[in-house]
Amino acid sequence: MLIRGLSKISMTAAALAVAFVVNFGLVFDISESNYANAQESDSAGYDEVINNFVSTIVVQEDASIKVTEQIVYDFGVNQKHGIYRDIPITYSTNLNDFSVRLKVLSVTDENGAGYDYKVSKENNDIQIKIGDAEVLISGEHTYIITYTVNRAILFNPNDEVELYWNVTGDRWLAEIKGVEARVVLPEEVAVEKLKVACFVGIYGSETEDCSSVYDPKTGIVFRTDSGVVLPGEGFTIVVQWPRGILVEPGMTRNILWFIGDNAILFLPILYFLVYGIFWWKRGRDPKGRNTIVPQYEAPDKLSPLEVGVIYDQSSDNSDLGAGVINLAMEGFLKIKLLETKEQGLFGFKQKKDWEFIRSAEFPRTPNDWETKLLDALGILTPGSPSKKVSELKDGAFYEHISEIDSALYESLVLKSYFPQNPQKARLKAIASGIALVVLLGFFTVFIGKDLNATGVGAMFLSGLIAVVFGWFMPCRSLKGRLAYEHIAGFKQYLSVAEKDRIKFHNPPTRTPELFEKFLPFAMVLGVEKEWAKQFESLTIPALSWYQGGTISGWNAIAFTSLMNDTVSDMNSTFSAPPPSSSGGGGGFSGGGFGGGGGGSW
Predict the structure, then answer these.
(1) Residues 493/507, Cβ–Cβ less than 8 Å
(2) pLDDT at position 352
(3) Same-domain pairing of 303 and 192
(4) 12: Cβ contacts below 8 Å, ≥ 6 apart
(5) Is 431 inside any structural domain?
(6) Assign residue 517 a region: left if phi > 0, alpha if psi is -120 to 50, beta otherwise?
(7) Which long-range contacts (CB under 8 A, 24 or more apart) does 266-271 make?
(8) pLDDT at residue 187 in the model
(9) Does the residue 366 lie in any domain?
(10) Residue 199's CB: how many other CB atoms inside 10 A?
């Protein structure tokens, strides 16, 4: 009985999808805003220039690097406070995130005097903002930035160690007139064991407009051939050498780094553990007899609809159809089969419809959920005109379903079969889990972290775990558990094969009246065919509550098939919502670690 619940869950999932769209829309808006701000700054940036950009990269024995950047920045006549330097630290792929660990050591001028500076996290970058907000400067100034980076060294499977470093980045707003990068290894390496490359240009450029010189004592020096790096261009270097001169990070450290970078990947595990514990404590039935014994009637004079809900803790449209048939059997209404012929493509075809006719007097006062069901059928009040199933389409019945369900669930809570409304418990558990995923998505975007495919997949899986555990979260009371075991025994009796019938002790005599009485119960428990099979040799007499067709003289199997057709047509009509309105091996420049850019402020 998943149809109704899943339709509500799908609505929740749709809300989640909308939230994701909003999230990514925010990302787009932020990107557009940043781009617009950059464009506005370009006019100021072009009349400023970087006269020299020298980077010294010292590879440490512990596989970290110490970077010293000497930036000679000329503000010209512009009155500014200083510069900012953006350095990426988080790199996203389709599978996972990878973050380097960067620590700023100092920012000084060429004489060693310290500058005021502030380090902040901006999206995937570390931003070093240098200067005094109370002081304006112009002309040429030298900034020497020193920082360390962990995880910038890659240990490749081919026993080579690689430094792939974007020296300048491609986001500077000023032209760089002179660029030099020096890589110093912790010990000398034979020139034939070194592999070097460098690239200049916009992101993705494979232009090697640069050269390198190696001195075992002073390191590898890279320079651009033209000496100029234009705004939007970058300078990237690659150095490879054999394994053995560095201490590689251990497995434990790599695992901790991976967890720190990709904590969201562990969200499904956390969801599984939390929901599992919660279900174990709150979602299981109390212990009953734990013995299923064949029973020859429903417990506590419950109706078929109530039996179906207690059995699987959910109500669906087939339950409602069986409930309508049971009300007809009790004398609240009659069901009339209407058969007409329509011209089809290959001749005439028979079309069926069913009409609900209110009884002049009800046999008893209907309870709350029965009242709502009769009202949904349009035959509650005396003198109500008959109603056809075809007239209940386009949402005429559908809009009453939640009220019927709610009244049915609440009645079973009042009768102490459930400690709380099972549908509310189910939706609460599902909605809270999905809402947490959505909030996490908003927070992830808010802090500037990109969601890669794996992250989105982890969030989706977490939501799915919430749906699965949430669906099984409702539990029965002790009374409900005992009723469930009774119903399970009743189902055994309804579905037993002839060869196993001897195992039962004094079962009721099989009569047409017994078949008719328990057929709605067999329908909500999904064993109507097995129940009919037990009565296939009996003839069904004319029924006071069902008109049309030629029922008299049918056997139980044929009659059950007709009832299934009736309920099936009801299901398709009951579940139809109102119609909605229409609407509408090498490398490249910019690759590797480092990079970013900067400007003045």
Answers:
(1) yes
(2) 83
(3) no
(4) 427, 430, 431, 434
(5) no
(6) alpha
(7) 266/458, 267/437, 267/440, 267/458, 267/459, 267/462, 268/458, 268/461, 268/462, 268/465, 270/462, 271/433, 271/462, 271/465, 271/466
(8) 86
(9) yes
(10) 25
Assess if residue 597 is contained within a domain. Answer: no
Count of CB atoms situated within 10 Å of the CB of 348: 10
Residue type, 347: G
User: Is 232 in the same domain as 335?
Assistant: no
Helix, strand or coil, per DSSP, at residue 300:
helix
Kindly write down the DSSP assignment for every residue of 576-594, as one continuous string: -PPPPPP------TT-SEE
Question: Which domain range does residue 177 map to?
Answer: 49-249
Is 236 strand, coil or helix? strand
Cα–Cα–Cα angle for 330, 400, 409, nearest 5°?
70
Same domain, 560 and 500: yes
**In the chain, which residues have pLDDT < 50?**
1-3, 6-45, 581-585
Same domain, 219 and 292: no
Structure tokens at 59: 């590879």
Cβ 322 vs Cβ 524: under 8 Å:
yes
In sequence order, what DSSP letters do the residues of 167-216 get, joined into one string? SS-SEESSEES-EEEEEE-SS---GGG-EEEEEEESTT-----EEEEEET
**Phi, psi at 381, each rounded to 5°:** -85, 150
* Torsion 9-12-14-19 (CA) sign: negative
We report the CATH number of the domain holding residue 131 as 2.60.40
Cα diameter, the chain: 110
The per-residue pLDDT for 451 is 64
Give one word for 281, left, alpha or beta, with left for phi > 0 and alpha for psi -120 to 50: alpha
Select from 129, 127, 125, 145 the least CA-distant residue to 80.
129
- What are phi and psi for residue 54, nearest 5 degrees? -115, 125
